[in-house]
Amino acid sequence: MATADLISRHSQEWRSAVDHPFLAGVRDGTLPARAFDRWLAQDYLFVTDLLGFQAGLLALAPRPAQRVLAGGLVALESELTWFEASAAERGLRLGGERHSSTEAYRVALDQLLAEGPAPAVTALWAMERVYLEAWRGAAPGAPRYRAFVEHWTVPEFAAYVLDLEGAATDGPLSEAAFLQICRLELDFWDMAWGAA
Predict the structure, then answer these.
(1) Cβ-count burial 142-164 (b if 16+ within 10 Å, e if not)
(2) Rounded Cα–Cα distance for residues 126 and 184 (Å)
(3) Helix (H) or strand (E) holding 67
(4) What is the pLDDT of residues 14-57, one digit of tens each?
């Protein structure tokens, strides 16, 4: 069965992860700037964790998956630089205290890596697919958030997600990893939205 079928098999969990009030607020401009900045600062920490996860996964992954994973690593380094520039423009300090949702994600990434490359690659695909679909759902975005929506929905990112889908595999461990990512993503949106 194709990995993308995980989305239709678990449509409720998937919708919860990609269609959140936080994103509706980005779309219509009702999201308070402080909520967006809270999310941005925590997402920066998440991306630093993801860089380590992907570096570890690259060493474990089967040969056919290594090209796309290596490309993803390079893109993540650029993404961190972009986060830092965006935060500076907003007067936002990065590298602060981790929220419990961010820490839970970090712990999950370590566990996924320990479970082996198959569920870890599927989890990575799920993370990036959620990200792409969530920001597509927020398009075009209110003027104050539009540049972020455009940045996270570029064709190059969509192509990367498609390549990851080709490297991912279905199976019991991968399915569990997919559901775990849906829960973690929902918690991450809630983290910023709940304290808006």
Answers:
(1) eeebbebbeebbeeebeebbebb
(2) 11
(3) helix 63-90
(4) 999 999 999 999 999 999 999 999 999 999 999 999 999 999 99
